[in-house]
Amino acid sequence: MATAPEVEAPADPLEAFRAQARAWLAENFPPALKGKDNSMSAVEGPTELNADEAAWKQAMGEKGWGVPTWPAEYGGGGLDRAEARVLAEEMGRIGAWNPIGGMGVMMFGPTLLEYGSEAQKREHIPPIVRGEIRWCQGYSEPNAGSDLANLQTFAEDRGDHYVVNGQKTWTSGGQWADKCFALVRTDKSKKHEGISFLLIDMDTPGVEVRPIRLISGSSPFCETFFTDVKVPKANLVGRVGEGWTIGKRLLQHERSSLSGGGSTAGRMFLGEPISSIAKRWLGTDDQGRIADLDLRTRIVRHEMDLRAFLLTLRRAQLEAKSNQGPSATSSIMKNVGARIMQERSELLIEIRGLAGLGWEGEGFGEEELKDVRTWLFGKAVSIYGGSTEIQNNVIAKRILGMLDHQ
Amino acid sequence: MAVLTEEQTMIRDMAREWADNESPVTAFRRVRDTAPAAMFDAQAWQAQAEMGWAGILVPEEHGGAGMGYLSLGLVMEQLGRNLAATPLAATAAAAGAILIGGSAAQQAEWLPRIAAGDLVATLAVDEGPRFAPDRIGAAVNGGRLTGTKAFVAEGDGAGLFVVAATDGLYLVEKGEGVTVAPRHLADARSHAEVRFENAVAQKLDGPADLVTRAADRATAIVCAEMLGMAESAFAQTNDYLKTRVQFGQPLSSFQALQHRMAKMFTELELMRSVVEGALEAIDANRPDVSQSVSLAKAVAGETLRLVSSEMVQLHGGIGMTDEHDAGFYLKRARVLETMWGNAAWHRERFARLSGY
């Protein structure tokens, strides 16, 4: 091969960075917050930060280490991959967590860094780095779900600005968001090429948000209505008609964050294994086996599936690092991650019987009540971010080279 | 693909090239049709020995390559792709047992001959049609072994048997007191009932769990062969769907089939991870070798069953004909799924080892 493999930075500078990171974390991470990760609040809605949380968030925001590999010129950490890995190790060592999250970090920021103008990057990246601005995603519409390119929300060109009319749906965190990155139609005569990528302030007159109540009882998503909403031309990202390309790139960031680097499954694995929960609830027979043998078999299958998934994640990471050519594994991670998460929830209900279906009130443990909501919300995992069926289309067409139907 | 060393990449590429050029499925078909007494491709086995594969696991001081199980697995995977009919898996499994349990003298006696390809060896554990290492009746008295082993892989051509008896593993050379009767299974490979009557037996000392350790290694080797078979069966099916036209379109344009293929591809990726994981666990001598091997065999068994069945179904009528190769994959798949424990057996062991 002509190119040399990526050379790890010599041990010394990296160890120097480790010492530096360790010292900074010792000075800035409040020990009281150890292990009390509230990063999901970015998805689940705003929570009141206590003094420690606020201080930690501010410190990480100013340091840029919430987004360690983003360029320093926009406030990011400016670290290389090896340094970012060291930082993560050092944070893990003391139970520190990243207080900077949300869609700005996971999806919009990386996309804007790639496609945004200099002015747009200077305006929008620093507030994301500091965790000050919440972004939401204006993609899906009532008639544009899996067939996203069918979207109809129209941005009419009025010289120096657009006037936007239409409706978005499944806007995650729309009711708490400050800004929205949206796919809008700028040309009705072309399907994909008629789409543009537009940034809309949520407090602009004509923007109306209605939360959607889900089967889980929570309302993490909204319907968002746009009625004669005036948006400056400066808020167009990329060129007119380039929205589909940019939007798809953003979805890649979404998928990789949904498959989570396996974080969801990883957390499950670190939590109490489902087999031990089953032993506690169902007891064991005289051979030490979970008393319900049929359920036990399905628990083994599930735990094997989880192990296989984690081994595949590890393999994908190693392959990416050793540069053995593009790995196909990332494309399957979302489907497998979803099936594992959903299966775990279903097994938990079977293990606990009706006590595993408690909705609220007395007579149920905190875990049981939480797991019921997780079970219901978890049904979304195989639907959002490209449903399992859409992922299978992607695998078949892009990886297996199967053809479009004529 | 696991992260490979330069040496491993070389041996894998060499094996792939050899399998594709020298040992396509037509070579297996020829063995099946001519049915030689030993039921393997003697010419191919000799070529493999010359390339050093018979001694992949054998240390250099005994004339081998001194490589590990991942390297052996890479070769087995390539052989599995084209159903190469040689006694490499069985011989390597026997060599693995001798490496763990053999004295210096035993290793010096047998390993050089194995590495040179002069001696086919095999590990004989089961006495019935299903894997049951806890039900062994063969026993040794005064250095003589008596008992009957069922469906011994490569039993027809083996010169050395590594035999599980009630108190451990023994080496028995083919000769007096050893009777071999072929058992023709659907896969047209060598399986034999081997009867030992007061046959001279040398004990392999070594750890108390020697039988388990030897069987785990044999299982992992078979998993690598299954991985290659599943990949090839899948690739051939994918190619076929692109060429077969019905309703004026290639079959690959039908979404019902696309999703079945996507699902199989997904399972194949998981299969590769667990199989490589087991081989790596063995090489690293990790304490969870048995769990890793059970994970690998259970997933490999189910995935190969799926892919080999779908290979026939998606080929339609042509897949039902003897002229087509699909049937070879289907038949060999079921044999390997059963050998060394089917998916249910390994799920059971995995659960027990995990404490539930």
UniProtKB/TrEMBL annotation, chain A:
Pfam families: Acyl-CoA_dh_1, Acyl-CoA_dh_M, Acyl-CoA_dh_N. The keyword Disulfide bond does not apply. Residues 241-400 form the Acyl-CoA dehydrogenase/oxidase C-terminal domain. Residues 136-229 form the Acyl-CoA oxidase/dehydrogenase middle domain. The keyword Metal-binding does not apply. Its cofactor is FAD. Keywords: FAD, Flavoprotein, Oxidoreductase. Residues 15-132 form the Acyl-CoA dehydrogenase/oxidase N-terminal domain. Belongs to the acyl-CoA dehydrogenase family. This is Acyl-CoA dehydrogenase family protein. It comes from Sphingomonas canadensis.
From TrEMBL, chain B:
Residues 220-352 form the Acyl-CoA dehydrogenase/oxidase C-terminal domain. Its cofactor is FAD. It is an enzyme of class 1 (oxidoreductase). GO terms for molecular function: oxidoreductase activity. Coiled coil: none annotated. Keywords: FAD, Flavoprotein, Oxidoreductase. The keyword DNA damage does not apply. Residues 5-118 form the Acyl-CoA dehydrogenase/oxidase N-terminal domain. InterPro entries: Acyl-CoA_Oxase/DH_mid-dom_sf (IPR046373), AcylCo_DH-like_C (IPR036250), AcylCo_DH/oxidase_C (IPR009075), AcylCoA_DH/ox_N (IPR013786), AcylCoA_DH/ox_N_sf (IPR037069), AcylCoA_DH/oxidase_NM_dom_sf (IPR009100). The keyword Protein biosynthesis does not apply. Gene3D superfamilies: Acyl-CoA dehydrogenase/oxidase, N-terminal domain, Butyryl-CoA Dehydrogenase, subunit A, domain 2, Butyryl-CoA Dehydrogenase, subunit A, domain 3. It holds the Pfam family Acyl-CoA_dh_1. Its EC number is 1.-.-.-. PANTHER family: ACYL-COA DEHYDROGENASE (PTHR43884), ACYL-COA DEHYDROGENASE FADE28 (PTHR43884:SF20). Belongs to the acyl-CoA dehydrogenase family. This is Acyl-CoA dehydrogenase family protein.
